[in-house]
């Protein structure tokens, strides 16, 4: 069988680009899972809007939007790490002697970009359909959505890494829930205030999530490979 690590040598740029490209292939080969998450996300927002009708306001819609982003991304989080573990790619990468953190950097970056490209248009169109879209706040709102998705992807990568060692789906769900609570709270504050300080706080949280997720996920993956 052709080894994944034979595609690149020790060159860092080649490693990142190869893993980045592979993540797109992983998503395309599991597009049903991605589309089902998006379908659940869209229908849930529309159903809630229809049921509440005049009782739903912009703030309520934003709360549900964040919650469904967290849920739908977590639903397909196996595509970030678990899928490569099943195929033996993680083990090949560790044995190649290249830092696993570079692998995780490329995987989470590619995953974040994919989710952003898929969800941002859907979020904007959904808001327009529900009558909450504002062209004046487009830049702020779009940047906020990008930061929310990026933070959720980092948490999803961390929670799926725990799944490798514990093999219990409940642990992944609980870790994802608790790790996304600060993201949820700060995102709500960003929506309500519409000011830069809270946005910068969300950026800082992303940098913390990115660092912690990369380090802990790398450790958990190594432990999982050694145990197997």
TrEMBL record:
Organism expressing this protein natively: Candidatus Bandiella euplotis
Protein name: Heme exporter protein B
Extent of the signal sequence: none
Domain of life: Bacteria
Record-annotated membrane-spanning stretches: 32-52, 64-82, 112-135, 142-164, 170-191, 198-221
Keyword terms of this UniProt record: Membrane, Transmembrane, Transmembrane helix
